[in-house]
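Hi R.,

As promised on Friday, here is the backbone we talked about, encoded as C-alpha coordinates. Could you run it through your design pipeline when you get a chance and send me back a sequence?
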Protein backbone atom coordinates (compact mmCIF):
# COMPACT_ATOMS: atom_id res chain seq x y z
CA UNK A 1 0.00 0.00 0.00
CA UNK A 2 1.41 3.37 -1.03
CA UNK A 3 1.22 6.14 1.57
CA UNK A 4 1.45 9.68 0.27
CA UNK A 5 3.23 12.29 2.34
CA UNK A 6 2.20 15.89 1.66
CA UNK A 7 3.11 19.39 2.79
CA UNK A 8 0.33 19.04 5.39
CA UNK A 9 2.53 16.50 7.20
CA UNK A 10 5.22 19.07 8.04
CA UNK A 11 5.61 19.42 11.80
CA UNK A 12 4.16 16.00 12.63
CA UNK A 13 5.91 13.76 15.10
CA UNK A 14 7.64 10.69 13.69
CA UNK A 15 7.26 7.68 15.99
CA UNK A 16 8.70 4.19 15.87
CA UNK A 17 6.67 0.97 16.10
CA UNK A 18 6.64 1.24 19.92
CA UNK A 19 5.13 4.75 19.79
CA UNK A 20 8.36 6.48 20.86
CA UNK A 21 8.97 9.87 19.27
CA UNK A 22 12.14 9.81 17.17
CA UNK A 23 11.85 13.23 15.51
CA UNK A 24 9.62 15.58 13.56
CA UNK A 25 8.94 16.11 9.88
CA UNK A 26 10.98 19.23 9.13
CA UNK A 27 10.02 19.48 5.46
CA UNK A 28 8.36 17.58 2.62
CA UNK A 29 9.90 17.74 -0.85
CA UNK A 30 8.42 15.98 -3.87
CA UNK A 31 6.53 13.54 -1.63
CA UNK A 32 9.53 12.72 0.58
CA UNK A 33 9.40 13.61 4.28
CA UNK A 34 12.62 14.81 5.89
CA UNK A 35 13.02 14.03 9.58
CA UNK A 36 14.86 16.15 12.14
CA UNK A 37 15.84 13.62 14.83
CA UNK A 38 16.76 16.29 17.42
CA UNK A 39 14.56 19.34 16.90
CA UNK A 40 14.75 22.31 19.20
CA UNK A 41 11.65 24.25 20.18
CA UNK A 42 12.25 26.78 17.40
CA UNK A 43 12.57 24.00 14.80
CA UNK A 44 9.32 22.40 15.98
CA UNK A 45 7.39 25.66 15.81
CA UNK A 46 8.78 26.52 12.37
CA UNK A 47 7.86 23.07 11.01
CA UNK A 48 4.32 23.23 12.41
CA UNK A 49 3.89 26.63 10.71
CA UNK A 50 5.23 25.25 7.41
CA UNK A 51 8.41 27.32 7.61
CA UNK A 52 10.76 24.35 7.94
CA UNK A 53 13.60 23.49 5.65
CA UNK A 54 16.10 20.68 5.32
CA UNK A 55 19.57 20.98 6.77
CA UNK A 56 22.52 18.61 7.19
CA UNK A 57 20.99 16.98 10.28
CA UNK A 58 17.73 15.99 8.56
CA UNK A 59 17.20 12.62 6.91
CA UNK A 60 14.87 11.52 4.11
CA UNK A 61 12.23 9.06 5.27
CA UNK A 62 11.90 6.05 3.00
CA UNK A 63 8.29 5.46 1.97
CA UNK A 64 8.64 1.73 2.67
CA UNK A 65 9.23 2.49 6.38
CA UNK A 66 5.91 4.32 6.83
CA UNK A 67 3.17 2.23 8.45
CA UNK A 68 0.56 5.00 8.58
CA UNK A 69 0.04 8.75 8.64
CA UNK A 70 -2.48 10.11 11.14
CA UNK A 71 -3.58 13.63 11.99
CA UNK A 72 -0.77 13.96 14.54
CA UNK A 73 2.05 11.65 13.54
CA UNK A 74 3.80 9.42 11.06
CA UNK A 75 4.16 5.92 12.48
CA UNK A 76 7.00 3.74 11.22
CA UNK A 77 6.85 0.00 10.70
CA UNK A 78 9.40 -2.31 12.26
CA UNK A 79 12.21 -3.67 10.14
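Update: got your reply. Pasting your designed sequence below so it's all in one thread:
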Amino acid sequence: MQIDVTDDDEGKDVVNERGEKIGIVSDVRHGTAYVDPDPGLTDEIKSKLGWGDVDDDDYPLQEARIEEVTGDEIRLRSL
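One thing I noticed while checking it: The beta strands are 13-15, 21-29, 32-36, 59-60, 66-69, 73-76.

Thanks again,
M.
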